[in-house]
Design goal:
Elements (H helix, E strand, L loop, with lengths): L2 E9 L4 H12 L3 E7 L7 E4 L2 E6 L8 H26 L3 E5 L10 H5 L3 E6 L3 H9 L6 H15 L3 E4 L2 H9 L7 E3 L7 H6 L12 E6 L8 H11 L6 E6 L5 H10 L6 E5 L6 H6 L3 E4 L14 H7 L4 E4 L2 H6 L6 E3 L4 H13 L1 H15 L4 H18 L17
Parallel strand pairs: 1-2, 1-5, 2-4, 5-6, 6-7, 7-8, 9-10, 9-12, 10-11, 12-13, 13-14
Antiparallel strand pairs: 3-4
Helix pairs in contact: 4-5, 8-9, 8-13
Length: about 400
């Protein structure tokens, strides 16, 4: 049995990407430790689905750059000590560092000296993230500094994972060696969703048309634009409702907008629901809504929620963003121009009136999603880990830059 350590500055229970990787390793017979932030259960250490989780009590009270820096520094020092001590006992074949921050990779350098390979899983692209969040201008000293620390971080890793090909291409353009990169998409573990399809007679109500969003309620995800669009469209959509599942800073704003537009009874803010219940809620809707804004960072986004709608057979109203268009054609998603509520309203009405259209979109999306499915991504990740543990390098025959079918 080989041992692997994953490090993430997030609560393990709510990070689907890290959980999928950790549980895939366990299923393949590996011993897995995760270093993460402490969850609401307050446990310093616990085991879930065979994964050993060690936690640090460090709140996520972010907002200012100073607060980010403080939290990053505290977690980095804790991870540096814990990975080093655990490495002596566990003899990890690999340490998988999950960003942000990119420089967290250096917390695993002592483990490399003791024989572990280092994997940097770049969940985000740091310069674009800060440009989006804080309005930092491209070419500023801050962006140049972030690009420098990004480069020294991925150069220090043995292998680098990215969530999409456009991000991989961007990083290669910044100096990342393409020979050590792998794309590991944000695919969804389909098992819980497959069991929810048609279960217990739960499904869409034929007397109403339900559009749904589930996730964090923050400004970048454009929910206020979706509420405005629904206010424009609802007069032409008798029996239509917009369900919003989740919590966040925009919850009060969304409730106020719904009241302002006179659609409070049709816009249902249902709050946060356990992730285990999401498939049941998805089975009750007719269409998904992902109204993400467009900016330098979000152009590269690939939301976890998109595959969840697709595997449940739901058509998706989706902002026309660069990375999404890289993988899905106009025949697969109901695209609308980002930041344009009127265009979104037109697509809402179009889906409401077109039952056959909804069926075509969902079928095409499933077909185009097939090369991105988790069973393929899981095998790609396990091949990397097993190759590293067997020979100190990737499994022979693995392509250095895997390609997937791209819908144009």
């Amino acid at each position: 049995m080989k041992s692997v350590c994953l490090v993430v500055q997030n609560v393990y229970d709510v990070d689907p990407r890290v959980r999928r990787k950790a549980e895939a390793l366990v299923s393949a017979g590996h011993s897995v430790d995760v270093l993460a932030l402490r969850s609401a259960n307050g446990l310093k250490a616990y085991t879930v689905n065979g994964v050993n989780v060690y936690t640090l009590s460090l709140g996520k009270k972010r907002g200012s750059l100073t607060r980010y820096a403080l939290e990053y520094a505290v977690f980095f020092l804790w991870a540096l000590v814990r990975v080093t001590l655990l490495m002596r006992k566990r003899q990890y074949v690999a340490v998988d560092i999950n960003t942000l921050p990119d420089f967290l990779i250096f917390a695993a350098v002592p483990a490399r000296w003791m024989g572990a390979k280092l994997i940097l899983d770049m969940h985000e692209i740091t310069p674009e993230f800060y440009m989006s969040k804080y309005g930092i201008k491209e070419g500023s000293w801050m962006v140049r500094l972030l690009e420098y620390q990004e480069k020294i971080s991925f150069n220090s890793a043995d292998y680098v994972l990215t969530i999409t090909e456009p991000i991989q291409d961007l990083l290669v353009g910044r100096g990342l060696d393409p020979a050590k990169t792998r794309v590991l998409m944000n695919a969804v573990d389909e098992a819980p969703f497959a069991s929810a399809i048609g279960a217990d007679g739960v499904g869409p109500d034929p007397d109403r048309f339900v559009m749904m969003y589930h996730g964090t309620l923050t400004q970048v995800y454009g929910l206020e634009l979706a509420v405005e669009a629904f206010s424009m469209a609802h007069a032409n959509m008798p029996g239509a409702e917009f369900w919003i599942l989740g919590s966040g800073t925009e919850e009060g704003t969304l409730a106020g907008l719904a009241k302002k537009f006179g659609i409070s009874s049709e816009v249902k803010l249902l709050g946060r629901v356990p992730s285990s219940e999401i498939p049941k809620w998805l089975s009750q809707c007719d269409a998904g809504v992902l109204p993400m804004r467009r900016d330098v960072f979000l152009e590269f986004a690939f939301p976890n929620k998109l595959p969840e709608f697709i595997v449940m057979g739901k058509p998706v109203l989706m902002s026309r963003l660069k990375t999404i268009r890289h993988y899905f054609s106009e025949a697969a998603l109901a695209y609308f121009e980002p930041n344009d509520p009127a265009d979104l309203a037109r697509q809402m009405i179009r889906l409401y009136r077109g039952r056959d259209l909804r069926a075509r979109l969902s079928a095409n999306a499933k077909q185009e999603y097939a090369p991105l499915r988790w069973d393929l991504m899981k095998r790609r990740y396990l091949d990397l880990i097993e190759g590293v543990s067997a020979s100190g390098g990737p499994r022979q025959g693995m392509e250095t830059r895997e390609t997937v079918a791209v819908a144009r």
